[in-house]
Hints:
45% of the residues lie in helices and 13% in strands.
Amino acid sequence: MAVIAQKCPKIKVTxxxxxxxxxxxxxxxxxxxxxxxxxxxxxxVAEARGRNLFFSTDVDAAIKEAQMIFISVNTPTKTYGxxxxxxxxxxxxxxxxxxxxxxxxxxxxxVEKSTLPVRTAQAIRSILDxxxxxxxxxxxxxxxxxxxxxxxxxxxxxxxxxxxxxHHTSEGQAAMDALANIYAHWLPKERILQTNVWSxxxxxxTANAFLAQRVSSxxxxxxxxxxxGADVEEVARAIGSDSRIGxxxxxxxxxxxxSCFQKDxxxxxxxxxxxxxxxxxxxxxxxxxxxxxxxxxxAENIISxxxxxxxxxxxxFLGWAFKKDTNDTRETAAMYVASILMxxxxxxxxxxxxxxxxxxxxxxxxxxxxxxxSITTSQIKEQLHVHSDPYLATENAHSIxxxxxxxxxxxxxxxxxxxxxxxxxxxxxxxxxxxAKELKAIGFKLYQIGK
Length: 451
Ligand SMILES: NC(=O)c1ccc[n+]([C@@H]2O[C@H](COP(=O)([O-])OP(=O)(O)OC[C@H]3O[C@@H](n4cnc5c(N)ncnc54)[C@H](O)[C@@H]3O)[C@@H](O)[C@H]2O)c1
């Protein structure tokens, strides 16, 4: 929304949220206090805020005033009842639809910006038409393809924008064109694709499933490389040079995290199962199974390398965010690795340039409720140590696990870090951050995924 406001100065954009703290942070004079860290974002907000970009908690007023409403609320995996652990929880979307229906007094275009299961627009339509004040609604699907860490660039130079709507009526087509005209302020028309609503909803889930599938495919091969002496980076380069395959998303890693991949694939699997497509569901579910395996394999490899126990040992984590250039930690591989090591009584010392201690604690507390992890809140209190200095985090550590590929890690004085570590000193590199030769030259025993 900030980028729309930046690129369309004549359109008034009001972002509303029921969380007053978030809105207060978006309005903070100090742009370093924006609730999301994202390169380039604060410059965009600085340009548009107060001009045509506003942040408010007055949801009703914003609904009344708007001609177009983007529903962008969270759609997490359900944690209760039917579809628990698989289906998308649509209660926040439903509440939005009900609020729009209750408040709107003139015709609106309602845009699904959240990632939603295919055919959600039907549910939104049913609520709007049955609860509403008789006003007319056009419902469009406009899924978001940006990636955190590169969001601003992804929006400024989007490969494509997808708009799903009702081609068959003139009102439907007009609504699609109205939304297309917004993006046409900065994107070439041929990158703005129009489809039917169901194709658009399904394309978002499918895009994430394909991307995550590539990560799981290369990670599966990393396990095979370890057993055979092949080098997964060399294999990735060799296959990625084939133009039919392409080089992107072929980097072996400790596993994908983030709020979207897992949630969206689980949702896809759930939809397939609900529709009786068992084989299709099983096929996509394997992407998640492989990802869980990779995270566990990484943690277990640390334990086995450190002579089969990490009890009482200091393990330094460089990085906690699920990827570089974001402070988002949802589903970060780091928390799963930490939990497995803490179950083995390790002392975890973490440094991340953007993630707060409170966030790390709440991530781990989320795992205490999971049936697959048995860490307790008192273990979190006693075994988790958060540092604001990477050199203190790694001092006297038995090993370092590189969990996020922050660029600043490459600039450290690795000789100094090595000198201050327990020997033999190990680095577990799930993200290929360091130059292996340099590390070896100074005496680290380097464990790299795939080698
Ligand atoms: N984060 C991403 O990179 C990304 C990328 C593409 C798509 N998406 C999709 O976008 C959606 C939102 O993701 P997110 O990461 O921004 O989630 P988020 O949890 O960070 O933000 C959702 C916000 O919605 C607010 N909210 C909930 N109910 C509300 C209501 N009734 N009225 C007003 N505000 C309400 C919450 O307070 C919260 O601030 C999800 O469906 C996600 O799958 C996210």
